[in-house]
Amino acid sequence: MLKTTKLTAAVLALALAGPLAAQEGAPKSGGTLNVVIQPEPPSLMLGLVQNGPTQMVGGDIYESLLRYDFNLKPEGQLAESWEISEDGKTYTFKLREGVVFHDGEPFTSEDVEFSMDKFLRESHSRMRTYMEHVESIETPDDHTVVFNLKQPFGPFIGIFEPGTAPMIPKHIYEGTDFANNEANNTPIGTGPFKFDKWEKGSFIHLVKNEDYYMEGKPYVDEVYYHVIPDAASRAVAYETGKVDVLPGGSVENFDVARIQAMDNTCITDKGWEYFGPLSWMWVNNDNKPLDDVKVRKAIMHAVDRQFAKDALWNGLGKIATGPLSSSTRFYDGDTPDISYDPEKAKALLEESSYDGETIRILGLPYGETWQRWAEAVKQNLSEIGMKTEIVPSDVAGWNQKVADRDYDLAFSYLYQYGDPALGVSRTYMGDNAAPGSPWNNVANYQNPETDRLFAEAALMASPEERKAAYKEIQDKIVEDVPNIWLLELGFPTIYRCDIKNPVNTAFGVNDGFRDVWIDR
Amino acid sequence: MMSFWKRFSYNRGAVIGLVILTFVIVAAVLAPILFPQSPWKMVQRPFLPPFTQDGLLLGTDALGRDVLAGLAHGAYVSLLVGLVSTIVALAIGVPVGAAAGYFAGRIDDALMRFTEFFQTIPSFALAIVLLAIFQPSLTFVIIAISIVSWPPVARLVRGEVLSLRTREFVEAASLSGLGNLQIITRHILPNALPPIIVLASLMVAQAILLESSLSFLGLGDPNIMSWGYMIGAARTVIRTAWWLSFLPGMAILLTVLALNLIGEGLNDALNPRLTRKSE
After folding, report:
1. Contact B40 A389 (CB under 8 A)
2. What are the strands of the beta sheet with A278-283, ordered from one edge?
3. Which of A123, A160, B154, B211 is the most exposed place for a label (fewest CB within 10 A)?
4. Could you tell me which CATH number the domain at B2-35+69-274 has?
5. Torsion angle of alpha carbons A17, A20, A24, A27, nearest 10°?
6. B35–chain A Cβ distance below 8 A for any pair
7. What is the pTM (predicted TM-score) of this model?
8. Which chain A residue is nearest to residue B38, measuring alpha carbons?
9. Which residues of chain B neighbour A311 with C-beta distances below 8 Å?
């Protein structure tokens, strides 16, 4: 028997228009959407560059086979329906018919095969590791693609989003040097908006794709992404009406409350479920006295995360309970207690091997909020009797210090990509701890048992088995406290309330403004 | 001595300056007694406005830290940086200037070209570069400020020494067989002292301003509460909590103003020839 997931176009349209539209009447067409982009992207070619701002603009131009709702449940985008075989090794996608690229060429299964097998395998490092699980790709006809996997790989269904698997036109790129193709400056995709103009340092202009395959969509005529390098100026740009949407992270947290209080202003912290940004302090497990689990536990209980959430993050986000964000698949909230408890922290520190050493705290050089956070943690730790000092640093210095393991505690946050096999295991796997990268197992956490479980869980076919394995992993890791987990960050998207549907998938504003309309 | 005080207090601004500075010094000295807790301690909810809570006269900052405690502890840091870096700058500038002025000729040329090398680089930019190279800690902040502020001292001392070295009393000392070092330290420098003292008082003010500017830019020692840090940390919330930038800003303004007024008073007192006739 095959597990099938089918969504007809009608159901899809209804589901996406959502309850909002039902209440407020039919969407209106027309208008201009003004959005802040920060920082200016290095390129818009999503197959080559995948940083935040490129994804934000690229998500309007490029599309993938699927998109994901707030619970990371897949919905059809370029694929109309899809099937996963019982053994978890064969994925069959039926593509939507009548889809054309912005230059008028039809989009077919050939493009899917080219994008996944050639382009992205060559130029997208994250994709390359995912594609190692793929044995072969078949294209029986123009609108069917079959992926044959070497072994079951549960996270595979979660990779078909524009930032991971953008569909790239084969007729433009085949046989060329991908990175130096001139077409990279005028990106061509299947998305709801077409590239028009990029005034470097000022704005990026996209126009409506008149030939878009969804009837009536997109609703707005054009999108301007405004490049405004200073956080205070971005806040002012919203206040003066120059822009209508402030994506997460574009203004300082301290400004959010003030802007939120303006008329006709809405705020949402949804749209980050796929990324699941989780912040923590790396703990250098090699350094004395941090190699002592009691010292690490003492730090964990000493840090007042509720205070940080309220005072620094406007109450947005959630207090982390362990290595997984609560929006990531197989999250388990029932892990050992790591709540704020200074008395317990003092007692643990007393029993531990801590002997008055100065612990260095390396803050994240990403603006005021992070600086204040390091100061608050320093104070928390000094209150349980730990000596600490803050090590100042710029972005390059932070990267280097963390990569060289020249730190005791270092603030960071990473994306989880919806599945622990994609975004969590890299942080805790013992064989991923070589110095030189600030993004791998920086703490040098070594636990053969969780290593084994991580490796097995990634390749299990049934979700139930995976859930059980990840439950065990979470319990064990929280017991060892290799890192000090802080908050699931809440990055608020601020927008005028008459801009409808700016955030309606787990990717938020990165997923293209296909369903956005302006009620003016 | 009496005439010195008389001339100094003749300048009313200088007296006001002295009063303000005394107040700042007292605040700095008493800070550890009045506010025994760390100024970093989060004592109340954040953004408490001034004069709303007993015991927290000036309210709290973005993390709920006592602003008044921060100002008092910051006074100590500002004065420490101002004094120490001025002393270090004098220790470099006076010998260089004295040697250049006294020996003249090639030595003068060499030392003055070296001094000009520092003078051609804008001092604030040089301080930023120095701190970007070193770790920003209090010691390096002081070193950086000293390095950028000694050239004017060297220039001034050179000029004074040049005009003094041809005087009769110097020639007399030379004829009586004193060595160069003794002539410079015993006979020339004491007579060049008044303008150096005036300059030094202005340099303290300059150093406090420099330290504040560096801390404002996030190049100060992140483990030390200083006025510049307080303004830098508060600037993102200036529209919701303006007093958090205003109060330490006033502290800097008053202290620097006081030092400048005192400098003027010292100038009047030490250089009677220059005293304005109208007063």
Report:
1. no
2. A318-319, A483-488, A278-283, A409-414, A358-362, A387-391
3. A123
4. 1.10.3720.10
5. -30
6. no
7. 0.85
8. A379
9. 46, 62-64
| B6–A contact, CB cutoff 8 A | no
How far is residue A443's CA from residue A482's CA, in Å, rounded to a whole number? 7
**Nearest by CB: B222 against A252, A312, A390:** A390
Least Cα separation, residue A502 to chain B (angstroms): 27
Q: Does B218 touch chain A (CB under 8 A)?
A: yes
Query: Does any CB of chain A come closer than 8 Å to the CB of residue B240?
Result: yes
B122 touches chain A (CB under 8 A): no
User: CA torsion angle for B261, B262, B266, B268 (degrees, to 10)?
Assistant: 30
User: What does DSSP say about strands A74-76 and A79-84: parallel, antiparallel, or unpaired?
Assistant: unpaired
Q: pLDDT tens, A88-124?
A: 899 999 999 999 999 999 999 999 999 999 999 988 8
Produce one character per residue of B228-260: b if its CB has 16 or more CB atoms within 10 Å, e if not. Answer: bbbbbbbebbeeebebbbebbbebbeebbbbbb
Question: Terminal CA-to-CA distance of chain A, rounded, Å?
Answer: 50
Q: From chain B, pick out residues whose CB is under 8 angstroms from the CB of A252.
A: 236
Q: Which residues of A309-323 are buried (b: 16+ CB within 10 A; e: fewer)?
A: bebbbbebbbbbbbb
Instruction: Return the pLDDT at B271.
Output: 75
Q: Which value does ipTM take for this structure?
A: 0.84
- Which amino acid belongs to residue A58? G
Q: Which range scores top for mean pLDDT: A20-24, A128-132, A291-295, A489-493?
A: A291-295
Q: Do A307 and B239 touch (CB under 8 A)?
A: no
- Write out pLDDT tens, residues A434-447: 898 888 899 999 99
- β-pairing verdict for A387-391 and A358-362: parallel
Considering only CA atoms, give the Rg of chain B. 22
Q: Sketch the domain layout of chain B as residue ranges.
A: 2-35+69-274
Q: Which candidate, A283, A271, A248, A275, places its Cα nearest to that of A485?
A: A283
Contacts of A255 in chain B (CB under 8 A): 236-237, 239-240
Q: pLDDT for A63-90, tens place per residue?
A: 999 999 999 999 999 999 999 998 889 9
Write the DSSP assignment of B59-93 as a string of letters. Answer: -B-TTSBBHHHHHHHHHHHHHHHHHHHHHHHHHHH
The answer, yes or no, to whether the previous bond of A19 is cis (omega within 30 of 0) is no
- The minimal CB distance from B40 to the residues A371, A375, A392 is found for A375
Give the DSSP H or E segment for A361.
Answer: strand A358-362
Residue of B37, B38, B40, B42 to mutate when probing chain A, most A C-beta within 10 A: B42
Rounded Cα–Cα distance for residues A98 and A76 (Å): 15
pLDDT at B1: 59
- Beta strand A74-76 pairing with A66-68: antiparallel
pLDDT tens-digit profile of A409-436? 999 999 998 999 988 999 999 998 989 8
CB A369 within 8 A of CB A253: yes
Q: Which of B44, B219, B236 has the highest number of chain A CBs within 10 A, making it the mutation to test binding with A?
A: B236
Q: What burial class does residue A28 get, using C-beta atoms within 10 Å of its C-beta: 0-12 exposed, 13-18 middle, 19+ buried?
A: middle
Q: Which residue among B136, B233, B240 sits closest to A392, beta carbon to beta carbon?
A: B136
Q: Which two tokens stand for residue A137?
A: 């790709």
To test the contact with chain B by mutation, choose from A368, A384, A398, A406 the residue with the greatest count of B C-beta atoms within 10 A, namely A368
Phi, psi of A312 (to 5 degrees): -105, -25
Residue pairs spanning A and B at CB distance below 8 A: 56
